[in-house]
Design a protein that fits this description.
CATH superfamily of the largest domain: Exo-inulinase, domain 1
Number of strands: 13
CATH architecture of the largest domain: Sandwich
Number of domains: 2
Distance between the termini: 53 Å
Strand content: 35-45%
Radius of gyration: 19 Å
Structural class: mainly beta
Order of helices and strands: HEEEEEEEEEEEEE
Length: about 210
């Protein structure tokens, strides 16, 4: 009788776990951050820049980059939607890289950066496809959560802030980049969160990806 009762409780717990997982992946969205740890993420130099606080990744410290290194799509994405909640503090700068690769130090050489910056001295504001399609307008406020949504399909990049499209960029066919930007191209790769400088404090939570057909 006891064994049967135990098995019944275990089945209920397993069913609840499956239900939770299905809810998390509703409409194809898959979480990349568990809200508790940096499991599935990898950082090289200045690893202390990243920590988890109140269910969010807190970015605060010297320049560093946190790369997604987990099992989803074997951390390699070509066509996708990425959506996350972001909160900046006054004077802060950060970014979200896509189609990038892990590197131990320095600014990521591969992929594009989507800007996170509402009041830093850099004039390129939140939602910019950094240096390729820049946004001068400030669409959201510091100290408030907002949604940053990146869609890549083929050679087109769409960036939305709180569901408002701020960038629609199409990479020209056969484009050749200037020296130092040779790898700023549509390709495939992982994501990275940027720690820009010791004075910048930024938070990310609810980081979700939805792979799209290639």
């Amino acid at each position: 009788m006891r064994r049967t009762l135990f098995q019944g409780v275990l089945m209920l717990l397993l069913a609840a776990s499956v239900s939770f997982a299905q809810k998390k992946q509703k409409d194809g969205w898959i979480p990349l951050f568990d809200g508790k740890s940096l499991n599935g993420w990898k950082v090289g130099a200045n690893g202390s820049t990243f920590s988890v606080k109140d269910g969010a990744i807190m970015v605060a410290g010297p320049r560093a980059h946190l790369f997604y290194d987990g099992p989803v799509n074997n951390h390699s994405f070509k066509n996708f939607e990425l959506k996350t909640q972001v909160m900046t503090t006054p004077g802060s700068n950060s970014g979200i890289y896509f189609h990038t690769d892990y590197q131990e130090d320095g600014w990521p050489a591969k992929g594009y950066e989507v800007q996170v910056n509402n009041s830093h001295t850099d004039w390129r504001r939140t939602g910019s496809l950094y240096a390729f399609d820049d946004v001068k307008e400030v669409h959201v406020k510091d100290n408030e959560w907002y949604t940053e949504h990146i869609i890549v399909q083929g050679n087109k990049v769409t960036i939305k802030i709180n569901d408002k499209t701020v960038v629609e960029y199409t990479e020209p066919e056969g484009v050749e980049r200037t020296k130092g930007n040779e790898k700023r191209l549509i390709d495939k790769g992982t994501f990275a969160l940027q720690g820009h400088d010791p004075k910048s404090v930024v938070y990310f939570k609810d980081i979700m990806v939805r792979p799209l057909p290639e």
